[in-house]
Specification:
This protein has 79 residues and is α+β, with helices and mostly antiparallel strands. The chain has one domain. Strands 1-4-5 form a three-stranded mixed β-sheet, with no helix packed on it. Strands 2-3 form a two-stranded antiparallel sheet. The longest helix is centred in the last third of the chain and has 8 residues.
Length: 79
C-alpha cells in the first residue's frame, strides 16, 4: 500500500498464512489475488512452508506459536 511492490507466493505445504505482511519498504502487503495457474517462469516465487521442529524452535516466541498452531512461514525467511 506504500510502494506498489508485490510478492508471488505458493503453498509448498498446507497451513495458515497471514493476510497482511510487512513490506521491505516499511508498508504493508496484503493478499489481493489467488490463481490456480502457475506463474510465468520469469516471476520469482516465494514458497510457504512448515519448518522443521529444530527450525521452529529457533524462531521468535510469536512465530513459534504461529507455526505450532498450523501456520506457515516463507521459505526464504528460514536460515
Amino acid at each position: 500500500n506504500k510502494c506498489n511492490n508485490y510478492k508471488v507466493t505458493l503453498y509448498k505445504d498446507k497451513g495458515v498464512t497471514p493476510f497482511i505482511m510487512r513490506c521491505k519498504c516499511g508498508g504493508d502487503m496484503m493478499h489481493t489475488k489467488s490463481s490456480k495457474q502457475a506463474p510465468p517462469s520469469y516471476v520469482k516465487v516465494h514458497n510457504w512452508v512448515r519448518p522443521s521442529l529444530k527450525q521452529t524452535m529457533s524462531l521468535s516466541k510469536g512465530m513459534r506459536n504461529h507455526i505450532l498452531n498450523g501456520g506457515l512461514i516463507l521459505e526464504d525467511e528460514l536460515k
